[in-house]
Amino acid sequence: MRIKTHKDLKVYQISFGVAMEIFELSKSFPKEERYSLTDQIRRSSRSVSANIAEGFRKRRYPKSFIAKLVDAEGEAAETQNWLEYAFKCKYIQKDIAEKLIETYENIVGKLVTMENQSDKWRV
């Protein structure tokens, strides 16, 4: 399959899907977390796919492409951190936290592969 847009990238599809999972989960977080944990985890989880999309459009500029992938990687790590807080605060169950954190590990692995093989993505 030829990749025409960022939406064709498996890593984009996974990151978008997991961000939507987090959005649904975060609806049940306490109201007092609205302007802290809830906003932060929604922002960082959405930022992963947003950086992938932006990076894909910048792929003809290798440094910009890699920088956006690195940004996505950082946002994935931040989301993992917020998931840890959500679990420790008892807002989500351990198995759910572990599954989501593992999904972000998978995303990071795919991003690192893209970074290391950035020449393959040039247009």
Short précis:
The protein is built from four helices and no strands.
Overview of the molecule:
This protein is mostly helical and 123 residues long. The protein has one domain (6-114): 23S rRNA-intervening sequence (de novo design (two linked rop proteins), Up-down Bundle). The chain contains four helices and no strands. Helix 1 (10-26) runs antiparallel to helix 2 (34-57) and helix 1 packs antiparallel against helix 4. The longest helix is centred in the middle third of the chain and has 27 residues, at 62-88.
What secondary-structure arrangement, pairings included, does this model have?
Blueprint: H1 10-26, H2 34-57, H3 62-88, H4 94-116
Helix pairs in contact: 1-2, 1-4, 2-3, 3-4
Main features:
de novo design (two linked rop proteins); 4 helices; elongated; single chain; mainly alpha; 123 residues
What would you call the shape?
elongated
Number of strands: 0
Number of domains: 1
Intertermini distance: 16 Å
Overall mean pLDDT score? Answer: 96
Q: Do you know the CATH architecture?
A: Up-down Bundle
- Detail the poorly predicted runs: none
Largest sheet: none
Structural class: mainly alpha
CATH class: Mainly Alpha
CATH topology: de novo design (two linked rop proteins)
With helices defined by DSSP (H or I, 4 residues minimum), what is the helix count? 4
CATH homology-level superfamily: 23S rRNA-intervening sequence
Rounded radius of gyration (Å)? 15 Å
